[in-house]
Fold each of these.
Amino acid sequence: MVTSSSYRFSSSFVVRLAGAALVLLGVLVVLVVLLAALLPLPGAVPLAALVAVLVAVLALVLAVTRRPVVVAFDETGYRIRYVRGAGVRQAEWRQVEDVTTSTVAGERCVVLRLRDGRTSTVPVGALAGRTEDFVQDLRNHLDQGHGYRTLRGRA
């Protein structure tokens, strides 16, 4: 019996996103300081901008420390979240016709092709853990979803 499993973004992927977010946040802080210095704004406007920056920093810290589930498998199907260009985000195993690998924008991806021609694309380089483990788990769930059993030979 295959249990449900989930996959999160890898630490390196989260750090890359956090770096880009910090650069944007730095630009925002510089703009707020310049506006406060150059324009005769009431005191509440710079304070509101500072609070907005602090909230953005808190959101960034939470995103880095609490990585969300990106791909989840269970007995009935799969769910993909937070992946731009993933295609079909949720489907049942019996809808999956086959699974292939591909390279999209330089990233290694697993592509689940559905019976109706639509696809789901998972960039495996952005996931935590080994790609081989992800693919094996996907294969096990897909086999179970289609009612296949593993044949074990005698030694």
Amino acid sequence: MPEGVAVLIMLAGPPMPWEKDVPRQLLAVYKSKPETILGRIIRQVQKADHEPIIVTHRQEFRDVTPDLEHFEPVDYRTTIADCILHTRAIWRKQTVILLGDVVYGNDTIKHLLDFRGEMLVVGNGAEVFGLSFNAASHEKLANVLYQVNMETTKGSPWEIYRKWCGFPYKSGQRETTVFHEVWDRCTDIDGPRQYQEMLRVDWG
């Protein structure tokens, strides 16, 4: 991994009710190629000469990534904001947060991995897919995450972004300094419908 860069793949959340025997992060990306959603993210990160850190407390994710570094956040709720806050011990000069249930376009993940600066949030009108921040942002971000945890029940990426920018949580406001629209197609897998739609796409 390049010195001073941490790439964290967040896999600490509980399974969704619709997930049966296979976590959504371990579902196949293609009908015809044996690559999982998590496997695709790892491949994309390693292709950019980074080694990701798997953030999880779930054994099934440790089992499929035995050669990678793992970090288990303790004493946290089930929100993404709280989980990110509890990774502070491994934040570095530049830290990239990737969500383990997102199928990233190659250009979007490259943009996240290449960014060097205070704060980048990448998403579209419906979802936030990842963020990157530098050491100068650590104190502010820790405070933002703590406040989001205290003031909201979801602790969602959108709430993190809005608190960072000083927007009301329920505001639809966006700006273009911190928030960047995705550079190509991305999707997260929230349910069976999204998964079936994803299988119809050639992700490259």
Amino acid sequence: MVDPDAASAFSALTGALDPPMFIVTVHVRGERDGCLVGFATQASIDPPRFLACLSERNRTYRLARDADRMAVHVVPDEALDLAELFGGSTGDEVDKLARCEWAEGPGGLPILAHCPSWFVGVVLDRRPLGDHVGFLLEPEAVSSTPPASALGLARAKRIDPGHEA
């Protein structure tokens, strides 16, 4: 059990950070979806690995459980509307991909038109990490057009989530 004082102090510490936001998209058995992800990071240099954590409560996670790949998009700072769509609505109620521009990418994955920096990763492992599940990805295809700046958590915090974390 976590000490409530430590949990509060940890929340204050992490709340002051401004990590980049990502949108993860999946395609499984003809179904597509995506969600805004704030818990994600490079996990290894050699071999290259990335860890994307998805909430167990959203539809994207339910699809991703069976996905062999996922696309990870860096959200440009000027794409707050896209972050609001993927973070402020749930795929259980809204077809998010019907409300934005995208093209089919590797493995049939949706690649978002307004996120020029993205990669497709092969899912190597899935690990429960509290209320999120970590997906360890090996990059397979990459489009690198770095945005002037990525949307950070500080701006994304104002998005009302489409479901509880």
